[in-house]
Input
Amino acid sequence: MTIRKATIGDIEKLSKLFDDYRIFYKKESDLAGSKKFLLERIKNKESEIFVTENSKNELIGFVQLYPIFSSTRMKKLWLLNDLFVSENYRGQGVSVSLIDEAKKLCKDSNACGLVLETAKSNEVGNNLYPKTGFSLDAEHNYYSWDNS
Output
């Protein structure tokens, strides 16, 4: 398996993987919308996307990170927003490798850290993240506002 930064040339394969990710999170399939969304992120350099490719040049996983900033630390901070591995490749260390690549980006960009959120019901993620060095912040409340 190879992990590398996604390029415009990956859009067709990546869009399918991204659509599968959205379906996993109970969203309607929208392959055209997925393609448009990812193209905008890559073209506008609004996120960093890393993909895992198997020996058959199939994309089997990805991680997408968005740059944000910590005012108190006065540094860049990366939001690990999306992490997905195709069902047939789960349990083989792909997620751990993608998280390691995210950590490398953090170090290479002199950022102060990575943050993420996952549902309390996401047993796989809630077991994975502590094993890869993330700590659960049990002291702060997380709030959201939806503009729909």
